[in-house]
Structures are given as structure tokens and as C-alpha cells.
Amino acid sequence: MTAIATSGADGADLCRGRIAFLVFGLVAVGLWLTPGFAAAGDALQVTNARVPASDQIGIDLPLVMTIRNDAAEADVLLRVRCPFANFAVKHAVDRGEGAPAMREIKSIPIPQSKTTELRHDGYHVMLLQTRQKLADGETFTCAVVFQNGGTKETEVQVSRTP
Ligand SMILES: [Cu+2]
């Protein structure tokens, strides 16, 4: 650094100036964005996520969870990724004249200032084509993606009675 500064002072100073400006800019943007992300992250809490135990592979299993939305606006659950299933879809349950029937939906509504319980007989996530057996007590990390709240890395517990 010293050698450069003495042999070509103008070029080195210009370079340092640009880098300092760039670093300052990145830090400023980072500080500007951070409070927004933190607020959105805290407003939406996913807890008690669980999936039933199974000794079969290649089956579909319901994933349920509790979602607390303290944000000022409603949100929607867009998608879920779990390491032990190939796909995930969102389901609602229709109760007509016959037996209740599950129906695929685009997203699950998450109203503001409310706690939403995903349940097998209501809105839930359906994990498709499981890749492995799931033993009672095991835990996995799944990504739950919300439109406003972003991606929540969520611990999912395998339980015999979900
Ligand atoms: Cu379902």
C-alpha cells in the first residue's frame, strides 16, 4: 500500500476514495434496510409446526402450525419447502353434503392481529411424496414463505398425534 501511494499517489488516492464511498454507501443501505426487515420478522411468528410420524415413504402428509401475525396488514402463506418431501401444496377443506374434501388453493390467508391455526380439517400444507420415514420425536427445518413476512426457517416436529 505504501509503495503504491508513493509511486502513483493520484491513482491510489482516487481508488481509495471510490472504495470508501462504496463502503459508506453499502453500510448506509444496510442500516436503512435492517429495521424494516427486523420489524417484519418479529410481526410474524410460526410455532408448533408438526407432521405425523410414518414408516412409509412416498406418501402425502399434512403439515400444521400456529401462525401469529401482529403486522398491520394481512399476509398470505405462499409456499413451504421441507427436506423430507418432494413437493408441498396448500389445502383448504370443503364441507358439502358428502365427506369433507381437501382442495388445493393458491395461498393460505393469514389475517392481521390474529393467530391462525393450520389444521388437517382446515387450511393446511400438504407435503407430497415423502422421501424418508418420519419417526416420532424427530425434528426438521422447513422454510415457510410468506408474501410480506418473507421466509421463516421453521422447526418441524414429527409427532405420533399431530
Ligand atoms: Cu391436505
Automatic annotation (TrEMBL):
- InterPro entries registered for this protein in UniProt: LpqE-like, Lxx211020-like, PCuAC_sf
Q: Could you list this entry's UniProt keywords, alphabetically sorted.
A: Membrane, Transmembrane, Transmembrane helix
Q: What is this protein called?
A: Copper chaperone PCu(A)C
Q: What residue intervals traverse the membrane?
A: 19-40
Pfam assignment, any one = PCuAC
